[in-house]
From TrEMBL:
One of its GO terms (molecular function) is hydrolase activity. This is Alpha/beta hydrolase-fold protein. It comes from the Bacteria. The chain crosses the membrane at residues 20-37, 49-66, 81-97, 109-129. InterPro entries: AB_hydrolase_fold (IPR029058), Esterase-like (IPR000801), Mycobacterial_A85_antigen (IPR050583). Keywords: Hydrolase, Membrane, Transmembrane, Transmembrane helix.
Length: 439
């Protein structure tokens, strides 16, 4: 039996399992060993111990600097990630103590060895998060950049009678493309003043038909740190949606991957607060832009919002604070409350210490005082996610108590792209059912 052609393309070689990551691990370990061994005088008694102590001290400072001082994201660095950062630091510390004694050629070898240790550590961190499963995904921004969204003329639309779903009246026309399209477009913060990065838009094959079915909309949100392109590249968005469309005569939701943070290290909490009016952006500016530029279904029952990690928390927030816009939501590995790292820090930064103002929009408080019998919710978390797993249990229970039509499940993985990809793929059928696309 012949091997698939893709297997022979280096761009499709896996980076998280198989030969490549183990080869990188072996080469990196050999480079680290070479850096640790020397015939130089006083190496074993002075320089090596000094390098080890310095690397250990720098490694101990990493979580303090990131989690306590800088605080670029709400959750702490995983221990395994800190460990591999420490290995990289050890490589550079060993190299630094070897460089002064080496000749020019020897110094080049030392620098190369340190870079190989860094490559090994980066590879292991990537294996932990599974963000770049192949070279193709890693290099996607350069080898497969998305085009700008082009305007398309309005077309006649397919009418769905009351009591029917779109799939029951839609018939795939001859010549319909097999795949959808991915493009980018800026979404201005007309009402919110929010400055976002370009959104990514997936238009399924059926969108290219005439007459055009009025497809439901899924607003999808990335995590933090992150960007909308993450769902397209690391999340395999087009492959997942094209696969769904192939099984449903070209039907799939229109997906708008919006930017709710404005930058990789920003966290405006998806609220209207002193920080920004992120909620207004997602509840008004994004829907207004979709209605103005695309032909889609209208009304809350046809609109869903979903996301991963911080994006999952945001999806929950918008579903309870703007239920008139979003009738269903998908929360993948979200938190139990919006946070900048601690409750006190969040309330102070967003509302000047006003607990009542925070409680007015905090999803758990909203769920405790309101009922949402017409909202559908899906919660997904990785089976080995010890931090976000308990939060998902807590929020799921609150959603049920508030009358939501909620479901929850775990998938293999942790707080990583194994979980995020599965969380979306496993729920595409559910989303299509909630939004009137299929029965």
């Amino acid at each position: 039996m012949s091997r698939p052609i893709a297997a022979w393309n280096p761009l499709d070689w896996p980076l998280t399992h198989g030969v490549v990551p183990y080869a990188v691990l072996a080469v990196g370990c050999a480079a680290l060993l070479a850096l640790a061994v020397s015939r130089a005088p006083h190496w074993w008694t002075r320089r090596l111990p000094a390098a080890l102590v310095l690397a250990a001290g720098l490694t101990a400072l990493v979580p303090v600097a990131v989690d306590d001082w800088w605080q670029p994201f709400p959750d702490s660095l995983p221990r395994k990630v800190v460990y591999w950062i420490g290995v990289a630091l050890l490589g550079f510390c060993l190299a630094a103590f070897r460089l002064p004694a080496g000749r020019r050629r020897g110094r080049g070898a030392v620098v190369l060895a340190a870079l190989l240790v860094l490559l090994m550590s980066s590879s292991q961190v990537n294996r932990y998060f599974d963000q770049y499963p192949t070279f193709r995904v890693l290099l996607a921004p350069w080898i497969n950049p998305a085009a700008k969204l082009s305007s398309t003329p309005a077309a006649a639309t397919v009418t769905v009678p009351p009591g029917r779903v779109l799939a029951e009246v839609w018939h795939r026309p001859a010549g319909l493309p097999a795949k959808g399209t991915i493009s980018t477009a800026p979404i201005p913060g007309t009402k919110s003043g929010f400055k976002s990065r370009d959104a990514y838009i997936y238009l399924p094959p059926a969108y290219q038909a005439t007459p055009r079915p009025l497809l439901p909309v899924l607003v999808l949100l990335p995590g933090q740190p992150g960007e909308p392109a993450d769902w397209v590249n690391s999340g395999g968005l087009q492959a997942q949606l094209d696969g769904f469309a192939a099984a449903h005569d070209g039907l799939a939701p229109v997906v708008v991957v919006a930017d709710q943070t404005g930058g990789p290290w920003n966290n405006p909490l998806c609220m209207d607060s002193r920080i920004a009016k992120s909620q207004t952006f997602l509840a008004q500016d994004v829907p207004d832009w979709v209605h103005a530029h695309l032909q889609t279904a209208a009304g809350r029952t046809a609109w869903s919002i979903g996301g991963l990690s911080l994006g999952g928390t945001c999806a929950l927030q918008l579903a309870v604070n703007a239920p008139q816009v979003y009738g269903s939501f998908l929360d993948i590995s979200g938190q139990d409350e919006p946070t900048l790292g601690s409750h006190a820090m969040t309330v102070n930064a967003a509302f000047g210490g006003d607990e009542a103002a925070f409680d007015a929009v905090d999803p758990l408080h909203v769920l405790a005082r309101q009922r949402f019998p017409d909202t559908a919710a899906a919660f997904v978390v990785g089976a080995s996610d010890k931090e976000y797993g308990p939060a998902q249990v807590k929020v799921f229970a609150a959603a049920l108590k508030a009358g939501m039509k909620a479901k929850a499940n775990t998938v293999p993985g942790g707080h990583d792209w194994h979980t995020f990809r599965a969380g979306l793929g496993d729920n595409l059928t559910w989303l299509a059912q909630q939004t009137g696309m299929i029965r």
